[in-house]
Design brief:
The chain is an alpha+beta fold. The protein has helices at about 20-30, 50, 75-85, 95-120, 135-150, 160-175, 180-190, 195-210, and strands at about 10-15, 35-40, 60-65, 70. A four-stranded mixed sheet has the order 2-1-3-4, with helices on one face.
Length: about 210
């Protein structure tokens, strides 16, 4: 567990255990570097002037590393992989194309397709040309095909892209927003065994119980 209480820590993580910040917690634990957590509450500290100066959206997660602010889960995962190369989570040259392609596919078209489906937003045939994901089934099929040919999203090695894509897949199956397709289940099973994910989940579950 990489959490520290040191006020001198140069990596600060703003979070709430009932949010997408769980993705960043997992990524932080994968890096193994010390970080200080700041727990925020919806409607109060998350909307405070102090936090709005960090993220004007008033949402978590966010990190501040050596004075630099990063928000958005996919961006934070990519940033941390590059900021701490010793963790081996950034892509190798042969992995870069798939790494960036699927990281941003999951953060853009896939998440939009899933959220719209959950919200009951119906896309007509004409509107398919206007939205980046086409339709829900197309987005799901596209991701499934990407996962069918390799162990991880960028090849045969775990990278930071798997933290973000993997979280989307595992949570999607858990909450029913993604189908339990064989490709997704096999991928999720591989990721579920990672020590960093188990550690991050335990931390957030405990925080959620005390909230």
């Amino acid at each position: 567990m990489a959490i520290t209480e040191s006020p001198d820590c140069d990596l600060v993580f703003y979070t709430n255990p009932m949010s997408r910040a769980r993705i960043v917690r997992w990524m932080l634990e994968e890096t193994g570097v010390p970080y200080r957590q700041e727990l925020l509450e919806y409607g109060t500290t998350m909307k405070s002037p102090e936090y709005l100066a960090i993220n004007p959206m008033g949402k978590v997660p966010a990190i501040v590393h050596q004075g630099q602010i990063v928000t958005e889960c996919a961006a934070i995962c990519a940033y941390l992989a590059e900021a701490f190369p010793e963790a081996g989570l950034a892509p190798q040259p042969s992995e870069r194309a798939a790494y960036y392609r699927w990281l941003f596919f999951a953060a853009g078209p896939l998440e939009s397709a899933v959220i719209n489906r959950v919200l009951g937003v119906s896309i007509s045939d004409e509107q398919r040309r206007m939205v980046g994901y086409g339709d829900y089934n197309l987005a799901v099929d596209t991701l499934a095909k990407a996962l069918a040919g390799s162990s991880y999203i960028a090849g045969e090695r775990f990278t930071a892209a798997d933290v973000y894509v993997g979280a989307q897949v595992m949570w999607g199956m858990q909450f029913g927003s993604l189908p339990k397709r064989p490709e997704f289940e096999a991928y999720g099973a591989r990721l579920a065994d990672r020590t960093a994910l188990k550690t991050a989940t335990a931390i957030d579950e405990k925080l959620g119980e005390s909230a």
